[in-house]
């Protein structure tokens, strides 16, 4: 299985447990690694035979930026589900970064990484 990576996708959304997070919003950053078979696209040289990462990024941004929720666990699952909508994606490893999380300490990042496969998307 080949791996397609898209990293550093910046989104602005209103997720968080605290009211001010929902009101003011903040930056979230998404990293994707997708398990796909690139041989059909390599043979045909046709975009239709692979995952269109430009469209995927648009869909991921939309998934992050809609419907505020409390937890990053909910958002990262939503992203994985979006990636797995394309039947060519066998698995998705998604990292959601929340660099401005409301923590009363010096830190560089909060991130959650999940891996979902076609068979366990909601397990």
From TrEMBL:
<keyword id="KW-0289">Folate biosynthesis</keyword>
<comment type="similarity">
    <text>Belongs to the DHNA family.</text>
</comment>
<dbReference type="GO" id="GO:0005737">
    <property type="term" value="C:cytoplasm"/>
</dbReference>
<dbReference type="GO" id="GO:0046656">
    <property type="term" value="P:folic acid biosynthetic process"/>
</dbReference>
<dbReference type="InterPro" id="IPR006156">
    <property type="entry name" value="Dihydroneopterin_aldolase"/>
</dbReference>
<dbReference type="InterPro" id="IPR043133">
    <property type="entry name" value="GTP-CH-I_C/QueF"/>
</dbReference>
<keyword id="KW-0456">Lyase</keyword>
<protein>
    <recommendedName>
        <fullName>7,8-dihydroneopterin aldolase</fullName>
        <ecNumber>4.1.2.25</ecNumber>
    </recommendedName>
</protein>
<dbReference type="InterPro" id="IPR006157">
    <property type="entry name" value="FolB_dom"/>
</dbReference>
<dbReference type="GO" id="GO:0004150">
    <property type="term" value="F:dihydroneopterin aldolase activity"/>
</dbReference>
<dbReference type="Pfam" id="PF02152">
    <property type="entry name" value="FolB"/>
</dbReference>
<comment type="pathway">
    <text>Cofactor biosynthesis; tetrahydrofolate biosynthesis; 2-amino-4-hydroxy-6-hydroxymethyl-7,8-dihydropteridine diphosphate from 7,8-dihydroneopterin triphosphate: step 3/4.</text>
</comment>
<feature type="domain" description="Dihydroneopterin aldolase/epimerase">
    <location>
        <begin position="4"/>
        <end position="116"/>
    </location>
</feature>
<dbReference type="GO" id="GO:0046654">
    <property type="term" value="P:tetrahydrofolate biosynthetic process"/>
</dbReference>
<comment type="function">
    <text>Catalyzes the conversion of 7,8-dihydroneopterin to 6-hydroxymethyl-7,8-dihydropterin.</text>
</comment>
């Amino acid at each position: 299985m080949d791996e397609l990576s898209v990293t550093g996708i910046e989104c602005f959304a209103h997720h968080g447990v605290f009211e001010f997070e929902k009101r003011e919003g903040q930056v979230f950053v998404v990293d994707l690694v997708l398990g796909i078979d690139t041989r059909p696209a390599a043979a045909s040289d046709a975009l239709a035979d692979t995952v269109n990462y430009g469209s995927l990024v648009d869909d991921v941004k939309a998934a992050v930026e809609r419907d505020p929720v409390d937890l990053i666990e909910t958002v990262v699952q939503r992203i994985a589900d979006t990636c797995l909508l394309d039947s060519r994606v066998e698995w998705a490893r998604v990292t959601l970064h929340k660099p401005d999380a409301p923590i009363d300490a010096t830190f560089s990042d909060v991130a959650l990484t999940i891996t979902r496969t076609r068979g366990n998307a909601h397990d």
